[in-house]
Amino acid sequence: MHELNPNWSVYSPFVSSIVQAGESLGAPMDTLLIKAGIDKHLLKDSAQRFAVAQALQCFDLITEFSEDQNLGLYAGRVGYVDGLNLQLYMSTVCSTFREYLNLMPSMLRTTGDLGEVAMQADKRFLKLQWHPLWQPSGEQRHLSDIVLSMSAAIVDSLCVQPIPVREAHFTYAEPRDTQMLRTVFGDKLLFGQPISCLFFDRDSLDYPLTRPYGDMSSAFAKLPVDHLFDKDHTQDPFLRELRQSLLRLLPQGRGNIDSVAEELTLSRRTLQRRLSERDTHFQQVLQQVRADLALRYLSDERLTVTEIAFLLGYSDQGSFSSAFKSWHGISPLEHRRP
Description:
The chain is an alpha+beta fold. It has helices spanning 12-24, 29-35, 52-65, 71-82, 84-91, 97-103, 107-110, 142-158, 179-185, 215-221, 223-226, 231-234, 237-249, 257-263, 268-277, 282-298, 305-311, 317-328, 332-336, and strands spanning 9-11, 49-51, 115-121, 125-132, 167-169, 189-190, 196-201. It has three domains: 9-69, no CATH class; 80-206, no CATH class; 222-336, Homeodomain-like (Arc Repressor Mutant, subunit A, Orthogonal Bundle), CATH 1.10.10.60. The strands form two sheets. A five-stranded mixed β-sheet has the order 3-4-7-5-6. A two-stranded antiparallel sheet has the order 1-2. A hairpin with a 3-residue loop joins strand 3 and strand 4. Helix 1 packs parallel to helix 3 (52-65), helix 1 packs across helix 4 and helix 17 (305-311) crosses helix 18. It holds the Pfam family Arabinose_bd.
């Protein structure tokens, strides 16, 4: 697609990462945000969306001010740190890198209308590919750099063993100065390639994920069972296992009865019968899990509403907000207000 769709938008954390990177380069961000038509006060709201065109204009304005061409790499580092809380939650429902990849958040759902990251594997490598929605952006550094640098940082921090980039491909032409690119991605860099892509060792698929410890452990690792449902319900092994399955499947968008039955190695009919024996049904359990999880996640200010929507298996923030209001009578943002 060669035309930039004026309806495409991104969530404010993406724009904020560009702003923070620009500030680190000494750019007059208040002035540049005005030029891009962005109200800086709205950046504090993680649910706020801005036009993709405005985000790209921020890149261009900062680049005009600074001779440093590594803006996307810096913004990617900021984005990585901003997403750490979601990674911590993911580590409570995954045990290996392979399992994490099966749950890997969609950029379209968590960031906005920029593009999608896809994983492919051959006999030797895992290939993390970046597919932008707006094809001409592949000729520029900014979007590729921010997505690939953030992805490289996430992958290398997930597991007990490091997972370094073995090779990196970029769709844009080779810049004059590649020192920072080599610092981030290593020395094997190829430019002018058809797809922006990072290569990792295939053996890393079975690496164990790091687990939260201490205070983090009590906040995150115990979440799946201890902080969700009343004690009478969690004493039922079947309901306990069903809810654990939902916790794993919801981020994949697979919180339906057929996926849960498959996860529990039951037929759909057997699952329905066992729930009926307990005077409940699948949709009731699903909504209870989502409603209780939503309250738990919202109590953690480090998670954005968009990230919570992803963890609960909703396609977008609006669908989650509507559901939450039906459960609790107010929106997620209203619930968070003091």
